[in-house]
Amino acid sequence: MNTLQPDFIENIYAKHKEESLHGKWITYKDIENLITKFESKFLRTQIGTSEENRPINKLEIGTGSKRILLWSQMHGNESTGTRALFDLFNCLLNSSETIFEDILKKCTLVFIPMLNPDGAQAYTRVNANKVDLNRDAVDRAAKESKLLRSILEEFNPQFCFNLHDQRTIFNVEGTKNPATISFLAPSEEVSRMLTRGRIETMDVIVSMNKMLQNIIPNFVGRYTDEFYPTATGDNFQKLGYNTILIESGHYPDDYVREETRKYTFFSILQGIHHIANSNSFNNYEEYFEIPNNDTIFYDIIHRYSDSKKDIAYQYQDLIIDNQLVSKLNKVEENSLKSKIGHSEIVFE
């Protein structure tokens, strides 16, 4: 297995991180000018527009036979993957490391760095017509869903990377660690059968998990593989396009997800590197050793001597006066004895 070493990948990231992108609210205006600087090496195409007529672009690079499709901000308020992709773009544009030359010789990469620019602008999960694009793979009611499917069928990728953010409630099962990164090889039907496509997807995830365990051991989880009939990953997997779901989650004291961004970048690079340098994808057993996601966290818990009075709170991100504001909302919960707060305040 071709596992990237921590010092090597840390140095690459430090050198090529896209410093102009910071924070969770990333809109099309934030990336519009950035995209132009990649036109010298990437093939940039506007593949269409959103429901509110914002551009949707794809960037293509590489000449290899292994085809990989990656997209981010399918949910507009989930931007960690977008930031990580622009870090990767800088590497592909500027790095002299042989790993990138090797990837571009062996792979053709197509990126859609912001599939849902309307949702990104409004900082919502859904598009401008209130459609959840990740549940629109069958009906394809949204323009954005049609565009993604057209690129999928035209490009015919061997592997897809579907990049998302997950909530702060998740921990790695059996630990008190947040699930900073969670992976999923989506099911193709209700029984969750172990198909050839899922085995190949799991193989890549095993590679990414092995790398992360060298850097953030026990902070990696496995997202539920319950079959969702209308979900994008499940349907793409069923159609024969191996789809890797990466869920970027919480890391201690990292609500802006800058540390998580780094580990998302590490995961994407390790996954592409592994695909580029593997002739078969059969090493799947260790996928089932990745602990499941569990849900023991709240953002803040107030503790009292009488535990029945304990109160939990969760942050809700809102756009107010053109600023991203995190509002604390009380959570109704009968007992918090089994829960943990990312921050806890004890009252006498």
Describe this structure in words.
The chain is of the alpha/beta class. The protein has 2 domains: 6-294, Aminopeptidase; 297-346, no CATH class. The protein has 9 helices and 14 strands. It has helices at residues 6-16, 28-36, 80-94, 98-106, 117-122, 143-155, 196-213, 232-238, 258-276; strands at 43-49, 55-61, 66-71, 107-112, 159-165, 171-172, 181-184, 220-222, 242-248, 293-294, 297-303, 311-320, 323-331, 340-346. The strands form 3 sheets. The protein has an 8-stranded mixed beta sheet, with helices on both faces. The chain has a 4-stranded mixed beta sheet with strand order 13-12-11-14, with no helix packed on it. A hairpin with a 7-residue loop joins strand 11 and strand 12 (311-320). Helix 3 packs across helix 9 and helix 7 (196-213) packs across helix 9. The termini are far apart.
List the keywords:
348 residues, alpha/beta, Aminopeptidase, 2 domains, eight-stranded mixed sheet, four-stranded mixed sheet
SSE topology:
Layout: H1 6-16, H2 28-36, E1 43-49, E2 55-61, E3 66-71, H3 80-94, H4 98-106, E4 107-112, H5 117-122, H6 143-155, E5 159-165, E6 171-172, E7 181-184, H7 196-213, E8 220-222, H8 232-238, E9 242-248, H9 258-276, E10 293-294, E11 297-303, E12 311-320, E13 323-331, E14 340-346
